[in-house]
Amino acid sequence: KNILNIDLSSAKEELIEIYPKKVAKKRSKAIVVADPDNIPEIQANVRTIPGIITQRGCTYAGCKGVVLGPTRDIINITHGPIGCGYYSWLTRRNQTRPSENEPNFMTYCFSTDMQDSNIVFGGEQKLKDAIREAYELFHPKAIAVFSTCPVGLIGDDVHRVARQMKEEIGNGINIFGFSCEGYRGVSQSAGHHIANNQLFRNLIGNDDTVNATHKYRINVLGEYNIGGDAFVIDELFNKCGIQVVATMSGNSTVEQFETAHTADLNLVMCHRSINYVAEMLETSFGIPWMKSNFIGADACAKSLRKVGKYFGDPELIARIEEVIAEEMIPVIEAREKAKLKTNGKTAMLFVGGSRAHHYQELFDELGITTLCAGYEFGHRDDYEGRRVIPSIQIDADSRNIEQITVTKDETRYKPRKTEEELKALEAEGLEFNGYDGMMAEMKKGSLVIDDLSHYEMEKLIEKYHPDVFCAGIKEKYCVQKMGIPLKQLHNYDSGGPYAGFAGAVNFYKDIEQIACCSIWKEMKAPWESEEYVEAVYAAV
Ligand code: CFN
Ligand code: HCA
Question: Suppose 297 and one of 71, 270, 331, 424 were both cysteines; which one would form an S-S bond, judging by CB atoms 3.0 to 4.6 Å apart?
Answer without folding.
Answer: 331
